Structure formats: C-alpha cells, structure tokens
From TrEMBL:
Pfam families: V_ATPase_I (PF01496). Its main location: membrane. Keywords: Coiled coil, Ion transport, Membrane, Transmembrane, Transmembrane helix, Transport. The keyword Transmembrane helix applies. InterPro entries: V-ATPase_116kDa_su (IPR002490). GO terms for molecular function: ATPase binding; proton-transporting ATPase activity, rotational mechanism. It comes from the Bacteria. The lineage of its organism: Bacteria, Bacillati, Bacillota, Clostridia, Peptostreptococcales. This is V-type ATP synthase subunit I. The keyword ATP-binding does not apply. It is a multi-pass membrane protein. It comes from Mogibacterium diversum. It is found in: Membrane. GO terms for biological process: vacuolar acidification.
Length: 660
C-alpha cells in the first residue's frame, strides 16, 4: 500500500576513481543518478564545474546498438524456428559475463559480417528488381529486330515510341505522305493500354515529321540508352536476374549458417547497451579538473549497501531525507500476490512520492469486476490455461508480459468463480449438447442467480458493489487528509458524503431490511447535508466558503453518475453468457446427424473463440476504466516519476551473482 521510501544521495569523488565507482554502482543496481540541469542553471555552480561525457560517445554506442539490431533482424528473417511470444532473458553468471566481455571484438566481427551479408542481399534484390523492370519494359519490343541504339543512318531517322491504342498508323503514314514527308509507320506490338510503334523518315524532315506524329500522341520509348536488340537485352536481363538470385541465395545460406552466432550478437547488443548507459550516466556527472560530483536517489532500505560501497573510495557522500519540493522517484512495493497488478497502475500513472500506492487496494476489485463481466467457467478455464502455458513456455519471471499474464490468470480464476455463481459453462453448452445429441434434459442451476432471468437483482448488486468501491476510494482520500492534519477537510469531502449516500440508500431501500431503517437514513442524510454546507465555512478561504450548496448539487449528480457506471458489470456479464447461448443455439440447428455434428463443432468453435476474444478484451478494458475513472478520480493525483537506477538494463542476458 506504500511506495518505497527514498533517500537523497550526494557524492563528491576523485576523477581517477570515477570509472570504477560507476561500474560498481551499476552492478549494485540501486542508485539513480539525477539530472544535473537544475544545478547548471545556477551561476555559482557553472563557475565551478562542467558536465562530464559527450554526445559523440553516446551516438557511437547507439550506432553500434543499431548495427546489432540490424544483424538480429537479419537472423530472424531467415530463422524458420518458432519464436516465443514473450522471450525471456538468458541468465548468465558474473564469471560468464566476464568471459563474454573478453569476446567483444569477436562478436563485433560477427555483427559486421552479418550486416555486410544484409547489405549484399539488399543489393542483390535491387539488381534483380531493376533487371525485372527492364525486362518487363522491353517485352513489348521483343519483335523489334533492329538494335535499340540505332536511331539514325546517313539519310534516315529511326524513332520507336508509344501511341494511344485508338491510333490508326496507316492514317498517320498517309498524313506524313500528304505533307511531302516520305515515311514508314509500323505497329510493333500493342496491349490493353497502348501501341508500340516504329517511325522512319528522312533526317532532313525531323522537325516537321515529329510535329505531325506528336499530334497523334506519339512519345519516345524510355529505352534509348540500351545497346543491341530488344531480344538480346531481354536475354541479358534474364541472366542478370538469375545471377542476382543466385548471389542472394548464396548469401542467405551464409546467414542461415550464422544462426549459431545469435547468442554472440545478443551479447554484443547488451554489452553496447551497458556501455551506452555508462556514457549516459557520465553526462549526468559534474566535474572539475580532479573531482566529480553527482546527486541521486536510493531506496532507504538499501542505503547501508550504498554507504558500504562508497566507503571503499576516496569520496565524500551524504544521505538525507527528501525535501518537500524534491521530485522524488517512485518505485512500487507490494506483496507477491499483488505485485503483478502494478501493471494496471503503471498503465495509468505512478503515484507521486507523497501518495499512497493503491495497487493492493484496488487489486481485489479489479479481479472481481473482470470475473463478473467475463463470468463463465469454460472461458475462465481457458484463460487460466493460456496464461500458465504462456508463462511456462516463455519462462517468464519478470517484466510487463509476466505481470500481464499473472493478472489474466487471477482474472481467469475469478471468471470461473462467477461462472459457477451464474451457472454458465460456455453459456448453456452442456444442456444444449445433452438435448441435441442424446435427447436428455440436463438443468444446471446457478449457485446464485442467472443474470438473464434476474437482471434487476444483478443491476442492484452491481451498483451496490460500485458504492463499496467508491467508498473505499473516498476512504483513501480521507486517510491522506487526516495524515496531513486536515481532519475537517476529510469530514467535508468524505465523511459527510458517506452519511449522505448511505442515508439516501437506506431511505430508498432500507424498509426491506427494517421498518426503522428509512428513518435512520433520513437522519444520516440530513446530518451529512448540514456538514457539507457548514464545514466549507470553516475549511475554505475567501469566496469559496459559500460553495457548500453547489458542492451538494455537483456531488449528488456526480455520485449518481459514478454509481450508474457500474451497470456495465451487468451489461458485459449479460453479453458474455447471452452471446455464448446464441452461438450454442445456432450450432445445434443441424440436429443429431453427421452434418449436425460438423456444423456444431465449426459454429461452436468459431463462435466461442470470437466471444471469448471480444469479451475478454471488454472485461479487461472496462475493469481498468472503473479503476481509472471512478476509483482513482476520488483521490489519485499520479504523475509520479519512475525510479530508474543505474543498472545493467539489458534485453537478452540477465547477469546474476550466482546461477539460478
């Protein structure tokens, strides 16, 4: 329910120990080095220090990382093996990592070789494509037997070009003859769009002849720079295509043979990432000729480890509590069961360092809401099995994919529970199968209620659950205000509305429980309304003292709207089971026959797959919405900055102290 407490760290050390200290801090992985821009805005500091590191070094590391990514992409392109959906990092020990570092040059050569192959393959594709384009452009001229470069003789001009398909070449030739321009206009070929022609006329008639044939839409063919006949050029183009494809296939074979180098390339990638991160940290250090300094953050529980490390060096350091105006980084800390739900919090925004982490509080609500909206035993089992399979198959134990799959597993368990409560197993699959194929009548009664038969009870339940959810959110707000010494604000913003909302509920529905409940509810509502009007005169300042009545109006309408938002539990819960029942009905229409069995299997599998996908997505999204809008809207500020310690933030290998 809380974020990890942080301590501010300030260090001044000697330049000759800088590299060793950065390496050990990275190995330790619990210190974030803060951005020094704030200090550099002070003239006092800028007169004493300069920023360490340089952009050129960072750019060089980024370039090498990009080369490694290109090499891995090339390997992926020609690797036919099935890749895991969520690949896990390969675990290596410190000793193994030291051996890897010693092979950096060897790995770099492999990356360079792969990129050379990639460039050569791209060139081969380019050559083949260019030759293919040339071949296609020459194909209509295959019947033209003169060399393409022959455009004139001692007396004649020879032009080849294009004309519209509707052109009558004899008419063109006749007009040239009528103008006193002896010529030959010949159709070499034609297709669906245009006609390919050759035109011969005397060189002295060049301008006059071109003027006439251009009126008929004549344009020169864009192949004048070639030598030899069209047939000869087509043959050369085909040979160029064959040579380029042969070269490409040879290169692709070499790339496939280098698949064994994938682990080396991945190691090189991560070595460069670590180097870039070290260079990036240096850009956050401030230096003089002989010393360096930086500020940072470390978790309070780990401060003794940091002190022990720093005491090994010739440096001054100080660990202090953060000031009120500090931008303290945030890291969530929850018990093992709740930790995966941090994924939902992080999707919205981390709490700021002064706030309560709501993860462990809303986690149960999230799982319950998902289960109600997805409520089906069959779908829940599939969701659980898929989640566990993905976790085991991909060997996930950290990161966003791990957290997401754990959340889906918990949600699947909840869906199974609510499926039992609603009596839904792939809708009414079991009764339909029994009736259609075995002539038996099986009735599966819900343990609690059937949402389709008792929608009003389900709606009241959904809204009641919403009231509890909202009250918990308001309670967190009250806790924060009381902690900050604002008890009257908590009474005005939270406790008064507890009385108002609970009182109205008792006035409307309390008679079903006790005859005296409506009267008690009336008293509670009146006390709450009076408190909501009077307390602003005590807690607020200036003109806002008289806003109590307006707060009542906006609070009543806002609370009513928020409570009704939980009717989506009814809507999606009904949709999941009802659509499943519709698909079961459609699948059973073939009756008890071979065709009917095939029809049942095809429609049933496709229908339930579609229903599973759509409603799983809907349950996930709307469960998040109820947290982000209704629940977080009661107390949450967010906008926390994530704690990003200096560490080996690798993608492919995970360096550990001891092998697991």
């Amino acid at each position: 329910m809380a974020t990890i407490k942080m301590k501010k760290l300030s260090v001044i050390g000697m330049n000759d120990e800088k590299q060793a200290l950065i390496k050990e801090l990275m190995d330790l992985g619990i210190v974030e080095v803060a951005n020094p821009e704030g200090k550099l805005q002070s003239e006092e500091w800028t007169n004493l220090v300069v920023k360490d590191g340089d952009e050129a070094t960072l750019a060089e590391f980024d370039k090498k990382i990009s080369y490694a990514d290109s090499a891995l992409s090339l390997l992926d392109r020609y690797d036919g093996s099935k890749k895991p959906m969520f690949p896990a990092r390969r675990v290596v020990t410190e000793a193994e990592y030291c051996e890897i570092l010693g092979k950096e040059k060897e790995f770099e050569e492999e990356v360079h070789r792969l990129n050379e192959y990639g460039s050569a393959i791209a060139d081969a594709y380019s050559k083949a494509n260019s030759a293919e384009v040339l071949k296609l452009s020459l194909e209509p001229w295959r019947a033209y037997k003169l060399p393409i470069e022959l455009t004139e003789t001692e007396c004649l001009s020879i032009r080849i070009g294009l004309m519209p398909l509707s052109t009558d070449v004899q008419e063109v030739e006749n007009e040239l003859e009528a103008a006193g321009l002896p010529s030959v206009v010949q159709c070499v070929n034609k297709d669906k769009e245009q006609m390919y022609v050759s035109v011969w006329y005397f060189r002295d008639d060049e301008d006059a002849a071109l003027e006439i044939i251009k009126r008929y839409g004549f344009t020169l063919a864009p192949i004048a720079e070639l030598e030899g006949t069209a047939e000869e050029n087509i043959s050369r183009a085909e040979q160029a295509i064959a040579d380029a494809n042969s070269e490409r296939e040879s290169l692709e074979l070499k790339v496939k043979e280098m698949e064994k180098s994938r682990a080396d390339v991945e190691c090189y990638h991560d070595i460069m990432v670590i180097g870039r991160d070290k260079a990036f940290v240096r850009s956050r250090l401030l230096t003089t000729e002989e010393t360096f300094t930086f500020d940072g953050w470390t978790p309070k529980f780990a401060s003794s480890k940091v002190e022990k490390l720093l005491e090994k060096y010739t440096c001054w350091y100080e660990l202090t509590e953060p000031d009120e105006d500090d931008d303290v980084p945030v890291r969530l800390q929850n018990k093992k069961f709740f930790a995966p739900i941090e994924f939902i919090t992080e999707m919205y925004s981390l709490p700021n360092w002064k706030e309560i982490d709501p993860t462990s509080i809303f986690a149960i609500f999230y799982i319950i809401f998902f289960g109600i909206m997805f409520g089906d035993v069959g779908y829940g089992i599939i969701l659980c099995v898929m989640s566990v399979y993905a976790l085991k198959k991909n060997k996930l134990y950290e990161g966003g994919p791990y957290k997401l799959l754990k959340v889906l597993f918990y949600s699947g368990i909840s869906s199974i529970f609510w499926g039992v409560m609603f009596g839904s197993f792939f809708g009414d699959l079991i009764p339909v199968v029994a009736k259609t194929f075995f002539g038996k009548t099986i009735v599966i009664n819900p343990l609690w209620l059937d949402p389709a038969k008792s929608p009003m009870i389900f709606l009241v339940f959904s809204c009641g659950l919403g009231v509890i959810h909202l009250f918990v959110g308001m309670g967190i707000k009250a806790y924060g205000e009381i902690r900050d010494g604002k008890f009257l604000d908590a009474c005005k913003d939270v406790f008064a509305w507890y009385l108002i909302v609970a009182g109205i509920i008792l006035m409307l529905f309390g008679a079903r429980v006790s005859s005296g409940a409506p009267g008690i509810g009336k008293i509670m509502a009146i006390v709450g309304l009076v408190a909501a009007i009077v307390l602003p005169f005590i807690t607020n300042k200036g003109i806002t003292k008289g806003l109590g009545i307006w707060d009542i109006y906006s609070g009543l309408t806002g609370n009513l709207s928020d409570i009704l938002s939980y009717s989506r539990l009814l809507g999606l819960g009904l949709a999941s089971t009802s659509i499943a029942q519709v698909f079961n009905f459609l699948a059973s229409m073939g009756g008890k026959s071979v065709v009917g069995v095939v029809m049942f299997l095809v429609i049933g599998i496709l229908g339930h797959t579609l229903n599973f996908g759509i409603n799983a997505l809907g349950a996930f999204v709307h469960s998040c919405r109820l947290q982000y809008v209704e629940f977080f809207g009661r107390f949450y500020e967010g906008e926390g900055k994530a704690f990003e310690p200096l560490s080996r933030d690798t993608k492919y290998i995970n360096v550990i102290k001891e092998a697991k």
